[in-house]
Write a sequence for this structure.
C-alpha cells in the first residue's frame, strides 16, 4: 500500500521503456560525483592537485570505515547511532594505555599494540551490547543504540576526567600519518576493509544471511538462519569499525578530546550509506555504494568550504542531499 | 437492479489492447477485458499469464505502455490505487497488502477514518469494523494487531476492507486461495449481495469449480493476451483448461487433481510421532504418527489449530505440553534450525509474510534453507548453487527471466513454486506443506502433486495442510482431523470421503468413526 512502483516510461516509445528513477537510483551517486569533480575543476582553484586529493582522502577514510559497519547493520534492517560515541571511547582509551596511565608497560611497542587491540575490542564489545539489546530483547535498533549514543560519550569523558590528552608517539600515530608508497596508511586500511566487506557481503554465507535477515526476518528464521547471531555480529562489527576509526582520528590530531572525537559521525555514516543506494529498510546493500556515498558527501563539504560557504550552510546542503537520495529510493521501490 | 429488456447491462469497464513491458519483456502483449454492470466476471489463466498485471494497470499501480481503458464510458486514467479507489474501483490484491502491526480496525478504516471534534473517533471505527466483519461471519477482537491472525482471517479482513468502500467495481485477485470451503461460501454470498446492488466484480481464481458458482462471464488469458471471453454457462471446464493451456480439449482430459496411484506397500515404520501437544488456546491436545513414505493430511475448520501444530513440530513456536519423537529419539526443537537439522522442511502458507525474501533473486530465495550445503568454509559455491537452482526452475516450471530475477517480480503462483523448491531442494525426510499449491494453476498443480507422491514413494514423509478438502482426500494416505486444537479422529485414505471428513471436522467424530491407535 505504501510502495507503489511506477514506471515513468515514455508512453509513445512502447518498445523501449526507460525507467528514469531506476536509472537515477542506480547511477545517481556516480553521476553526482562526476558532476562535483567537474564543477570543482572549473571553479575551485588548485583543485587538480595531489594535495587536494590527499586532504579529501584522509578526511573521508574514517567516514568510510564507519560506513562499512553501518552498511552491514542497515542491511539487517537496523541502525547504529552509537558509532560516534564508540569512536570517542576507543579514542580516549588508547592513549591512556600507551601512555601508561592505566598500568605502566615497559616497551612502547607492547604498549601501543595493547592500546590498539584493547580499545578496538572494547568498542566491538560495546557493539555486541547493542546487538544483544536488539536481538535478545527486541529493542528497536534506534532506541537500543541511543543508549550508548548518549552514555558512550559520557563514559569517554569520565574516563579522561574531561581532559584533553595530547601525545607524540610515532609508534602509534603511523595509523594516521604514515605514508608507505606515498599512500596514506589509513587509505590502505580503508581499502582493505572495503574490499573485505564487499566480498563478504556478496560471496559468503554470512553476507547472504545478513541480506536475508534484512529482507524478511521471519522467512530467514524459518529457513534455519540464526537471526540473533547475525544481528549480534553486525553490531559487533560496526563497533569494531568505529573503534578503529577513533584511533585514526586521534592519531591524525596527536590528541584525543572526548568531546569531539567522532562527533556527528553517525549522521555522516548513515548519510553515506543512504546516498550510496543501500535500502534503509534492509535487505539490499552495497558497500561500494557506501564508499561512493561517503566520497560524495566529503566532496560536497569540500566544495562548499573551498568556495567560501560557511559550515552551517554546508550542513543544510548535506541534509538536502540525504533527503534527495532517500526520495529517489522511495520512487524506485516496489 | 432490474434487468434491461435485452438482458444485458451496460458496459462498466472496457480495457482494449493493453500492453505492458517490464525491462523490455512483455507481460501484457494484447490484453482486453470488458465487464458489464452487475456482472461477476472471472479472469483466469496460467501462472504468469498476466492477470495480476492487468489488474494493476487498471488500478494505476503500473503504468501501461499502450492501450485504452474506458470506465463508465469515459476514458479512465489513474496514477495510484488510491485514486482508483476514489473513482469507484476497490481492489483486493493477490498479496494481502495490509499493515500487520496495526489493529484490525485501523486496517479496515485506513483511508476513511472517522473523526469527531477533529480527533479520530475510535469507538465509531471499532463499531464500523465489527459491523463489516459480521457480514463475513467473523467475530474477532478488532483491537488486536492484524498480524496475530492467520492468513485466511487476514484475507477476510482485506475483503471486508475493500467492500467497505462503496465501489462500482470490486476486484478480487485470488481471494479464495487461502480460504476454507466455509469461508468461500460466506464470500460468495457477499458477492451475490454485491451483484444484487449492481456492483460488478472481477474474480481471479485457479479453482475452476468455484467459478461456476458465482461468475456470469469469463475471460481467459494466455501469455499476456486475451484468448477468449465467454458466458460461463456456455463453456465447460475442460474447454477452460484447454484455452488456458493453449491445447486441444482432448489433450487436457484427465489433467485435473492427480497425485497418481498410491503404492501403500511402500509406507514404512513410524518416523515421527507427537503425543498430547499443546500450546496456548490454539493447540490443546494433538497426537499423531507419521510413517516413512506416507502422506498425512490435516483436516479441520479455520481455527482448528492445523498451522499452529505444524509450527510446533517445526520449532517455530514452542509447545507448553506434550512430547515428540523423530526417528525414535526424543525431539524438542528450540528453533527451526533444529528441525532442519533433524531433516524437516516447512513450506509456510504465508508466502509474503514469512516465505519469500522479495528483494532477493530467485536463486537466493530457492537456496535459503540450503546455505550450509552450498558453501565451503563459509564461502558460497556459485556453481553448486546454479546447478541446484537451474534444476528446480526446470522441474517445477518456474516462469522467470532467469535465476537472477528478483523474486518479487514473479507472479504469485511462480513465487509459490520457488518457495516449494526451497524445501524440496534441501532433500528432507519429513516435509510439512501448509497450502502447498496455493495460487498455483491447474496444470502445474497436477505436476506438483505427482512430484510429492513420487518423493513419498522414495521414503519422504509428508504432512499436508490444505484448505481444499479434495486435495487432502485425494492426496493423503491418512487423514488426521483437528477440531478446536484437539486431534479428534484419524481416517485411512480408503475409508475417507468428503462427507465423513466434513462430519468429523464439525462434530469431532465421523459417523462411522474408526479411531485407531
Ligand atoms: N514488477 C515486475 N517486474 C518484472 N516482471 C514482472 C513484474 N510484475 C510481473 N512481471 C511478469 O509479468 C508476468 C505476468 O505476471 P502476473 O503477476 O500478471 O501473472 P498472473 O497471471 O497474475 O499469475 P499468477 O496466477 O501466478 O498470479 C510474469 O511473467 C511476471 O514475471
Ligand atoms: Mg497473479
Amino acid at each position: 500500500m505504501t510502495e507503489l512502483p511506477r514506471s515513468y516510461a515514455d508512453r509513445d516509445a512502447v518498445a523501449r521503456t526507460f525507467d528514469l528513477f531506476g536509472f537515477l537510483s542506480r547511477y545517481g551517486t556516480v553521476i553526482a560525483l562526476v558532476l562535483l569533480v567537474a564543477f570543482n575543476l572549473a571553479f575551485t582553484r588548485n583543485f587538480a592537485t595531489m594535495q587536494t586529493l590527499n586532504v579529501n582522502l584522509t578526511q573521508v577514510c574514517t567516514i568510510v570505515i564507519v560506513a562499512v559497519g553501518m552498511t552491514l547493520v542497515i542491511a539487517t534492517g537496523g541502525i547504529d547511532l552509537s558509532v560516534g560515541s564508540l569512536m570517542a571511547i576507543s579514542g580516549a582509551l588508547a592513549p591512556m594505555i600507551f601512555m601508561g596511565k592505566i598500568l605502566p608497560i615497559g616497551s612502547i611497542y607492547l604498549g601501543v599494540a595493547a592500546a590498539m587491540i584493547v580499545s578496538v575490542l572494547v568498542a566491538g564489545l560495546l557493539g555486541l551490547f547493542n546487538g544483544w539489546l536488539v536481538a535478545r530483547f527486541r529493542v528497536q535498533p534506534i532506541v537500543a543504540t541511543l543508549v550508548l549514543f548518549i552514555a558512550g560519550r559520557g563514559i569517554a569523558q569520565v574516563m579522561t576526567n574531561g581532559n584533553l590528552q595530547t601525545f607524540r608517539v610515532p609508534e602509534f600515530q603511523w595509523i594516521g600519518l604514515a605514508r608507505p608508497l606515498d599512500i596514506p596508511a589509513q587509505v590502505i586500511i580503508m581499502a582493505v576493509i572495503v574490499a573485505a566487506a564487499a566480498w563478504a557481503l556478496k560471496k559468503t554465507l554470512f553476507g547472504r544471511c545478513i541480506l536475508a535477515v534484512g529482507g524478511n526476518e521471519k522467512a530467514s528464521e524459518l529457513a534455519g538462519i540464526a537471526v540473533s547471531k547475525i544481528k549480534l555480529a553486525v553490531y559487533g562489527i560496526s563497533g569494531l569499525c568505529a573503534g578503529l576509526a577513533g584511533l585514526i582520528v586521534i592519531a591524525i590530531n596527536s590528541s584525543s578530546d572526548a568531546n569531539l572525537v567522532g562527533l556527528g559521525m553517525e549522521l555522516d555514516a548513515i548519510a553515506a550509506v543512504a546516498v550510496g543506494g543501500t535500502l534503509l529498510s534492509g535487505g539490499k546493500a552495497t558497500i561500494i555504494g557506501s564508499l561512493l556515498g561517503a566520497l560524495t558527501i566529503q566532496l560536497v563539504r569540500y566544495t562548499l568550504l573551498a568556495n567560501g560557504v560557511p559550515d552551517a550552510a554546508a550542513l543544510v546542503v548535506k541534509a538536502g542531499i540525504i533527503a534527495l537520495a532517500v526520495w529517489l529510493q522511495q520512487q524506485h521501490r516496489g | 437492479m432490474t434487468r434491461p429488456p435485452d438482458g444485458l447491462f451496460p458496459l462498466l469497464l472496457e480495457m482494449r489492447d493493453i500492453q505492458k513491458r517490464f525491462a523490455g519483456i512483455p507481460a501484457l502483449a494484447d490484453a482486453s477485458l470488458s465487464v458489464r454492470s452487475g456482472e461477476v466476471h472471472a479472469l483466469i489463466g496460467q501462472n504468469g499469464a498476466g492477470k495480476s498485471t492487468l489488474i494493476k494497470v487498471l488500478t494505476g499501480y503500473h503504468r501501461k505502455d499502450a492501450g485504452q481503458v474506458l470506465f463508465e464510458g469515459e476514458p479512465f486514467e489513474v496514477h495510484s490505487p488510491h485514486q482508483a479507489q476514489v473513482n469507484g474501483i476497490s481492489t483486493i490484491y493477490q498479496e494481502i497488502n495490509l499493515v500487520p502491526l496495526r489493529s484490525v480496525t485501523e486496517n479496515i478504516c485506513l483511508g476513511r477514518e472517522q473523526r469527531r471534534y477533529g480527533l479520530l473517533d475510535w469507538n465509531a471505527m471499532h463499531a464500523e469494523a465489527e459491523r463489516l466483519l459480521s457480514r463475513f461471519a467473523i467475530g474477532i477482537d478488532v483491537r488486536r494487531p492484524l498480524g496475530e491472525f492467520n492468513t485466511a482471517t487476514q484475507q477476510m479482513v482485506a475483503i471486508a476492507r475493500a467492500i467497505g468502500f462503496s465501489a462500482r467495481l470490486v476486484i478480487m485477485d485470488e481471494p479464495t486461495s487461502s480460504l476454507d470451503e466455509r469461508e468461500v461460501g460466506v464470500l460468495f454470498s457477499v458477492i451475490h449481495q454485491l451483484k444484487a446492488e449492481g456492483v460488478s466484480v472481477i474474480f481471479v481464481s485457479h479453482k475452476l469449480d468455484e467459478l461456476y458458482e458465482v461468475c456470469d462471464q469469463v475471460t481467459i488469458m494466455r501469455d499476456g493476451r486475451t484468448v477468449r471471453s465467454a458466458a460461463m454457462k456456455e463453456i465447460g471446464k475442460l474447454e477452460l483448461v484447454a484455452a488456458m493451456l493453449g491445447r486441444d480439449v482432448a489433450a487436457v482430459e484427465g489433467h485435473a487433481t492427480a497425485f497418481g496411484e498410491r503404492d501403500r506397500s511402500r509406507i514404512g515404520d513410524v518416523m515421527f510421532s507427537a503425543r498430547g501437544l499443546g500450546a496456548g488456546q490454539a493447540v490443546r491436545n494433538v497426537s499423531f504418527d507419521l510413517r516413512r513414505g506416507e502422506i498425512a493430511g490435516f483436516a479441520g475448520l479455520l481455527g482448528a489449530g492445523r498451522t499452529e501444530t505444524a509450527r510446533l513440530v517445526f520449532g517455530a513456536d514452542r509447545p507448553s505440553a506434550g512430547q515428540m519423537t523423530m526417528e525414535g529419539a526424543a525431539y524438542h526443537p528450540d528453533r527451526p534450525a533444529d528441525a532442519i537439522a533433524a531433516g524437516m522442511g516447512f513450506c509456510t502458507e504465508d508466502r509474503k509474510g514469512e516465505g519469500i525474501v522479495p528483494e532477493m533473486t530467485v536463486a537466493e530465495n530457492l537456496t535459503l534453507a540450503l546455505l550450509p550445503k552450498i558453501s565451503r568454509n563459509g564461502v558460497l559455491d556459485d556453481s553448486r548453487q546454479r546447478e541446484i537452482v537451474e534444476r528446480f526452475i526446470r522441474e517445477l516450471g518456474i516462469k522467470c527471466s532467469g535465476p537472477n530475477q528478483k523474486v518479487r517480480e514473479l507472479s504469485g503462483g511462480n513465487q509459490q513454486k520457488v518457495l516449494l523448491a526451497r524445501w524440496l531442494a534441501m532433500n528432507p525426510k519429513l516435509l510439512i506443506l501448509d497450502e502447498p499449491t496455493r495460487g498455483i494453476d491447474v496444470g502445474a498443480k497436477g505436476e506438483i502433486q505427482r512430484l510429492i507422491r513420487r518423493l513419498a514413494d522414495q521414503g519422504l514423509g509428508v504432512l499436508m495442510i490444505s484448505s481444499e478438502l479434495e486435495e487432502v482426500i485425494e492426496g493423503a494416505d491418512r487423514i488426521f482431523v483437528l477440531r478446536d486444537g484437539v486431534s479428534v479422529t484419524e481416517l485411512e485414505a480408503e475409508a475417507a470421503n468428503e462427507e465423513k471428513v466434513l462430519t468429523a471436522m464439525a462434530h469431532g467424530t465421523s459417523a462411522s468413526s474408526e479411531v485407531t491407535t
The mean pLDDT of chain A is 86. Chain A has one domain: 20-332. Residues B 22, 27, 45, 47-53, 94, 399, 409-414, 439, 441 surround adenosine-5'-triphosphate (ligand 1) (CB under 6 Å).
